[in-house]
Each structure stands twice: as C-alpha cells, then as structure tokens.
Design a protein that fits this description.
By secondary structure, the protein is mainly α. The protein has 16 helices and no strands. The chain has one domain. The longest helix is centred in the N-terminal third of the chain and has 35 residues.
Length: about 350
Amino acid sequence: MLAQNETSAGRACAAGWTGCPTVEVSREDWVDYAKGICIVMVVMMHSTLGVEAASGHEGFMHQIVAFARPFRMPDFFLISGLFLARVIDRDWRTYLDRKVMHFAYFYVLWMTIQFAYKGPSFAAEQGWSHVGAMYLESFIEPFGTLWFIYLLPIFFVVTKLTRSLPPVLIWAMAAALEMLHISTGWTATDEFAARFVYFYSGYLFADYVFALSNRVRNHNEAAIAGLALWATVNAVMVNTGFSTWPLISLALGFAGAGAVIVIGTLLAQARWLSVLRYCGEHSIVIYLAFCLPMSMTRVLLLKTGVISDIGTISLIVTAMGIIGALAMGWIARATMLNFLFERPETFRLAPQRRRPMLQAAE
C-alpha cells in the first residue's frame, strides 16, 4: 500500500532468478487505479454484508461481492509488495520504523477510536469488563476491519528475515499454506496463511507485473479479450463453488490480481474514472476511516426505511463509507486532527520524510 515515486528494483533478478525483464519503473497512474479498485471492493464487501446481516435479506450487490471474493484481497496484498525491493535493504531501525511502527501506530489509534464508538453497544450486551477484555485481546486478535494493517507489518518482517533463503522455497511454502485453507479461528494465523503468497509474489515478481502493464498499453484489444475470458471463468468458478477448492483458489487469486492490473492500466491509459485513481492515492485513509460513516449510514437507512431495496441501500452505504472517510481526511488536514492520518514524530524510530498528509499513512 505504497504511494511513493520510486524505482522498482526486481527482487527476483536480485535473488538470482533467470529470464528477468529489466524494467525501470516510476510510480504510474495504473497503480493508483488498481489500489482504488481494491479499496472500493473492500468497502463494498463490508457495506453489503453488513446491510444484509442487519436486514436478513440479500440484494443485487451480493453477487458483485461474491464475484470479487477470489481476488479482492489477493490483489491488495500483491500491490502492497510491489515496491518492497526499494526499501528492504535498509537498516533494521529504518525498516522497522517504516514497515512496523508505521502501521502499528495507525492500528492502535483506529482500534481505540472504533472501540470508543462501538464500546457502549458492546457494554450494553456484556458489560464494560467484557469491553476491556476485548480491547486487550485486539492486540493479538485483529479487531474488525483493521486486520489488513495488522498483518502487513508481519509480512514485511517475515520477508526481510527470510531474504537469505532461496526465494523459490519461500514462494512454494507460501503457496502451500494458501492451498491448505488453514482455519484456526485466529485471524492473524489464518490470513497469513491465505495471503502471504500474494504479498511475496508482488515483491518477488514486481518486474513482471510492470512488464504486464507495459504490454497492455500496446495490446488493448487482446487485453480486453483476456478480461472477458477471465470474468467468465471467475464467475463460473464462483457460482459453482469451485473457487474455494485448493489450487483453484490460488489460481483465481493471481488471475484476478492480474485482471485488476490490466483494468487499472486501461483506465489510466484512457484517463477514465479518475475518482478511482483518487481513491487509490488515499486508500489507507479510506481503509482506516470508512467503518464509521459506513455503520452510521447503514443504521440510518435501515431504521428510517426510506429505501426498501437492500441492494440500493448497500450501494449507498458503500458510497457514503468512501466519501465519509475522505471527508474525515480533508477535515483532519485542515485542523489539528492530522495525527489521525499522519504519524507524529513522537512515534517515529527514524527521521520523517515529508509527504502530503493524506498519503502519509501509505
């Protein structure tokens, strides 16, 4: 989930893999488009499933969410690993500051904010002692929607610690973990097993990812035909239930990640739907803050009953989750609340590099 103007040094080539393309890459619009698509799908999933759970009914958005399930998080994690080769050689203090302390600060801050918002309802059901126990447990069991930024530092540390091992071995082990579909009940364990292969692939095969984007620019018709084929296969696999089978889930995850990259490239080339690019540029702001406007909008619409169609309610809740989160970012930027999205110097292990505030959390 990175947003810097940087060059991607191919980790696969550095590790001794043969046949690596030599691709000098600066940050391009397609990366932001791809991140924008990912964050919209994430908000859509939480919004839709939340509305359906609260109402007891499904709407038309349910099928869209189901279609995106095989690749929604794989693509987010793959993109998160794309620029890791640029920083992985830094000293441990700088690395831990950028890749561990950075996300830990936002996790603890927004976990606390969410508890302040949801705590009274939790307490009404099981008492304040239970709320306190839940809060402490959230340091080992990621709380709600924040599990993504809880897991990212773990991925960063594991990748750096295993650099001396053969990349093919790490990748094979990560792929095996995904195909095992581990279910222990602990989010960090289960999601690590399910997602690390995509993060590591983004790191290892960054040059190939950017080469794919470059080829799409020169072969638009073939890219569109490939997207049509992918969409058909993905829909069939989801509707038949095969998408959760071992190996098929892995293949669909990579295929969907590739499709999002292709779509992002085509949109960037045509300069369409710039709102997606904007969402991608500020994806971490949306990820941190969307839960509050999302839940408030859901409660308001379901209680008032002004709209009866569940699919429409889900769509509105999705939009308000995104718009509300961005509005919170704008307000923070204009007030003394910038600590919500920009880590203060007090919580830094290494000197800060100045960046625009709304991208500072990325």
